């Protein structure tokens, strides 16, 4: 896919991996529609930065992806922004701990809603536009979809579901729409605190002995969008060799 002047919707695009994807795809000539939930200042600053580089090439919109009505609004606004959508990057994610004994229904609904329900319904809502444009979907998954993370059972299950969804949507939406995923390992430390000991234990289990960077994931997204015309239903692991020690 020549992604110059293609239209890309990225969820959770204000910071971290989402923002890195937005900057890199934009630098290749794409228009980017930035979804955010609570990080308004970051999203608007990123939108301004991109529009200064190329006028009317970025738009931002706040939405709670747990609400179907707001999902629909994001899909409609993104489709209308530049007359269609070519790429959907499902990046928004909820991540926080709760051991099995302390999981509540609210916890379950929040995690599954953001990590699995929202990506599915966005894919559904945009399937016609993506089919018409022979577009693609990239889902940001996690290495813990396959190797569950202790203390995060619901999160791990939600990402396992997203991996399964990637494969079935590749069947359901093909041949017009390619659907792939990326499974990051330790890219940047989570926003909740980790002890120095915990960080060192994680680093020791990574073959490259360092964290990755958001740009590492963005480059994998760019590859799947731009240069992977014969790849669908696949999940690329970008983890510095972390899963070799599982």
UniProtKB/TrEMBL annotation:
<dbReference type="InterPro" id="IPR036291">
    <property type="entry name" value="NAD(P)-bd_dom_sf"/>
</dbReference>
<protein>
    <submittedName>
        <fullName>3-oxoacyl-(Acyl-carrier-protein) reductase</fullName>
        <ecNumber>1.1.1.100</ecNumber>
    </submittedName>
</protein>
<dbReference type="Pfam" id="PF13561">
    <property type="entry name" value="adh_short_C2"/>
</dbReference>
<dbReference type="InterPro" id="IPR002347">
    <property type="entry name" value="SDR_fam"/>
</dbReference>
<keyword id="KW-0560">Oxidoreductase</keyword>
<comment type="similarity">
    <text>Belongs to the short-chain dehydrogenases/reductases (SDR) family.</text>
</comment>
<dbReference type="InterPro" id="IPR020904">
    <property type="entry name" value="Sc_DH/Rdtase_CS"/>
</dbReference>
<dbReference type="GO" id="GO:0004316">
    <property type="term" value="F:3-oxoacyl-[acyl-carrier-protein] reductase (NADPH) activity"/>
</dbReference>
